[in-house]
Amino acid sequence: MSSARLDGLRFPDRHDIEQLMYTYAKAADMADVELQVSVFNDDCRVLFSGDTWIEGKDALRASLRNAFTRYAQTSHAVTNISITFTGTDDAEAESLITAWHRDAEGKEWTLHGRYLDRWSKGTEGWKIQTRQILAAGAVGRDESRLTMLQRLTMSDGH
Of 61, 74, 104, 131, whose CB neighbour count within 10 A is largest? Predict the structure, then answer.
């Protein structure tokens, strides 16, 4: 493979984005709000569920702190990361997420879904500009407030 082709794959940028995705998941599991919000731009937008976007890093920080008071333990696994560069300093990424939660009373639930992210690269490196979670399903939780992933219908209608 030519060096031009390898350069076009942008391995260093892919690596940086992937590592930040893992940092976000680890920070969530360690209840480290500051580390978790550090992967976002100041003017980020995040949609965890429902239809109300969280606007800005301060609002995200408050939302995460609230979540950490509800959960005694979590475990987030991020896999199948796909990154498409849409410009020199812009990218879109999609990844699979499995997020297990246990509250203070011991009730457990697990989310299976996808992170849909838009990333931008500035003076501090790559940061998430927008993140939306689409749920494939949840075990042990009411799905009515989740933004559900819409499956495609096969050509025969099934």
Answer: 131
